[in-house]
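Sanity check

After download, print the first record. It should look like this:
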Amino acid sequence: MFSIYLFIDGRQIDNALSVLQSCSGNSYDATWKYNIAFLYAYIGNLTKSYSFYKKAFSLKISQPNILELEEFIVNVVNQETEKYQLYFCLGIISYYAKQDNPSTVKYLTNFIDQGCGNLKFKKQIELSQKIINEAKSK
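Expected structure tokens:
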């Protein structure tokens, strides 16, 4: 997808978001929703990101595509450790799309540990704790 190229080629976030927003008429395609959710998370807007992820989770996407998304996000957060908010994405993808409770706990715990002092992510930290508790009880 062209938006991913724009992201990789110089982190052209605004251009990538514009490309993805042109897909908004396609309400049955989860891929663009996952991509736009990632970009919003990357720039620190977890509220908007979570909104798109919730929409994406309600649609069908193949398990190999989910694993590719996870691998892509892991690579980004490993290269740019200051983007720890991407652990929130990884955690909710693991919980809602993969039903992988151990990964959910690992990713969301990383997010909480690194973001505990950031009031900007207070709601997402609270949601992460709730999801961790649910994942541990299953």
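If your output differs, re-run the checksum step. Summary of this record's structure: The two ends are 36 Å apart (CA to CA).
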